[in-house]
Amino acid sequence: MMLSSTLLAQAPDSLVRFNELTFYSEFERETFKRFQHKDVDIFALLMSNGSLLSDVKIKEGRDRFYDHVTIVGRETAEKKTGKRIKAIYDNLHSKFLMKYELKNRFEEIFYNGYYNCVSATALYALAFERLQIPYSIKEEPTHVYLVAYPQDERIVLETTSPLAGYYTLSDEFKQNYLQKLKDQKLISAQEYAMQDVKTLFDKYYFGQNTEVNLQQLAGLQYLNDALYKTEDKKHEEAFTQLEKAYILNPSQRIAQLLYYTGAQTFESRKEKDSTHAVLLSKLSRYTDLGVDQEMIVGEFARATQDLLFVKGKRDQYEQYYRILTRSITHQKLKDDLAYVYNYETGRLLYSQAKCKDALPYFEKTLFLKPNNLEAQGLFLASLAQTFNSKNSNQEIIKQLDDYNAKFSNLQANNHFNALRAMAYLVQFNMSYTTNKIAEGDKYKTLFESLATQYPDISINTELIGQSYSNAAVYYYRKGQVSKAKQFLSTGLKYAPNNYELITRQRMIK
Description:
With 509 residues, the protein is mainly alpha-helical.
């Protein structure tokens, strides 16, 4: 099988994105950058997760390897297929592979000659690629090996014993991995109880005998490196290696490992910092593996409680929210997170009597969840408090009318209707007091319309009495007794027991 240079297409909801990868050397960064732009250099990708060789030494190793392969290819060109493959195998093994080592990276072949089945298989595949010898790479639960001429001759090349050529995972890792799958309901409770750990792990981790290409093999090397780090409890470093493994080999198995390791990394990180936010954002993409939006929102709510209300770190909370949401593409999840952020920030400011500052946050909650009564309640409480600092009742009326047009759901809230009625009533009273009769009648009509439409709203009866009494006095002094009586009668309709209205009504009978 010749090398595939197909580049992983990255949709916005891809589990891994290039701009989020963590690199440990400039060589690795540049190699992946070229890969991203479809300049696929497999030798460099195999070398990129190491740290033993400088750029110069890597180039020297590459040149030495390919020069030798060219010579071996020329020297064996006349041999029959089977004998040629054996000659190439023996020559490369003698020249480059000095000592088997279980935990191994490809670069070590060129550093000290140490190898394992993955790195050695990669070496032979590179040689066959250069010599245009057909091959395929097979991966089994405990082994990776190469088959030359897979369509006819099927010559198997074992770089190590099948029983000792592949890194063996610990029982603890296998048990935890299967438990995650069971929690996600990818394994039924019955199957989990009926089969042993090894059988289940081989089935769900490895699947069937798999054929991989060289690019995917480079991904498997990153996967192995992640497993080494997992065994050492270096979950965060393991996660970063698995992300690169997935870029090179976007298989379901690596996706499951990504989720498993990402969840472990997230759970082990107690500090609610930017890294914690990045991890939570990434975990939100694993919807196919059992992560739902409520889990993400719940974790953000816990971070909110810790940063805002326990530690009082509002700036850090703002940063956490920005980092968490900047790469989330699912709109409903973004809206749910925005609701928590705006509601809780507004609640914090309200508790600090900073109602003017809280109001914009509560407005956003009403856009997101217009029917939420808790959000409406805090919004209206903050709004009412801000009226204490306003010098103009007309300004209050305009603000209330604007909110009425903007948030139609508030019309079902009698706290809001009471605020509007109160503002109209105040303006009705003020207008008659300053002889602006037409204006006063306008706001009297608005008040009465609202009070009639919502008869159960609670309105200050003293203000009703004062407003209608002032209007009655105005018309009484004008000699319009009948009209004065009409105002007093109407006022008593909205405040039946108001002392001032009753008294004035008796006086002008």
